[in-house]
Amino acid sequence: MDYVKLGSTGLEVSRLCLGCMSYGEPDRGGHPWTLPEDESRPFLERALDLGVTFFDTANVYSNGSSEEIVGKVLLNRVRREEVVIATKVHGRMRPGPNGAGLSRHAVLTEVDASLRRLGTDYIDLYQIHRWDPATPVEETLQALHDVVQAGKVRYLGASSMWAWQFAKALHLQELNGWTRFVTMQDHYNLLYREEEREVLPLCADAGIGVIPWSPLARGKLTRDWDATTNRSETDEFGKTLYRDSDADVVAAVARVAERRGVPRAQVALAWVARNPVVTAPIVGATKPHHLEDAVAALELELTDEEVAELEAPYEPHEVVGF
């Protein structure tokens, strides 16, 4: 496993980040395809064995259960300082007023709740899961700065938003001397490349680490277009992300993978990882070979001709995912 700096920070992370949305008790209000603790444990432990040190979850994943599982499994295996744990704030955690969003009330309440569930006294990377149009961004940014100053959080990150929103936030942080965002977790893969227009160039210019979510497009890049899984059949959000014309890209991935004699997942992930602005793709794993393929993808060097073949069928999409 290779290790790289997280954006322009001094923090080193593994070249892969394990996404932990799939780990959570199904009866805790999560998705029907999430894995309970006993089924999640082998994946987290195998990731550690493979050298993965970077783990991403969120407070809303299985209503906090994902954080509980991640913290319990990781910290029973390694010292706290040996892993980088990222989580997020924004989604609804309870009904009624102040149960969601990025108000000062929500940020201060939810950071403490995440710390309790994770079983740690600090979060390495605390991310806003989405932009909150109902809260002045200045209020959010100052609250985030305060949790860093309090020692509860070490670095701040953002996730899917318009480039102008991210640029505004970075400007306000610099203007007011508030702790700066150091990462952007955005939607980026061979089926969705709209981030190449503005978000990725902004991140490259500002020294922001990019940690894309869904680099395998909810698994669509790893199987025939018409094939389904338990998750794809019940993932309503995922159904909004892609369209039928994307099948041509999936076919290109299949052709390149067949010629190389490797699984499709390795080709699709190698394409994401080769982008110099990408720090660490966030990969999910619910089958043993998922982690092995992800690690192997880091060693797969695509030729210019293969990249051209993979990119040629792409058609511009409407912006989705946030």
Notable traits:
10 strands, 11 helices, alpha/beta, 322 residues, eight-stranded parallel beta sheet, TIM Barrel, 38% helix, globular
Secondary structure layout plus pairing:
Layout: E1 3-5, E2 12-14, E3 17-19, H1 37-49, E4 54-56, H2 65-77, E5 84-89, H3 104-118, E6 123-128, H4 137-149, E7 153-159, H5 163-176, E8 181-185, H6 199-206, E9 209-210, H7 230-234, H8 247-260, H9 264-273, E10 282-283, H10 288-297, H11 304-311
Parallel strand pairs: 3-4, 3-10, 4-5, 5-6, 6-7, 7-8, 8-9
Antiparallel strand pairs: 1-2
Helix pairs in contact: 1-2, 2-3, 3-4, 8-9, 8-11, 9-10
Could you give a short description of this structure?
The protein is of the alpha/beta class.
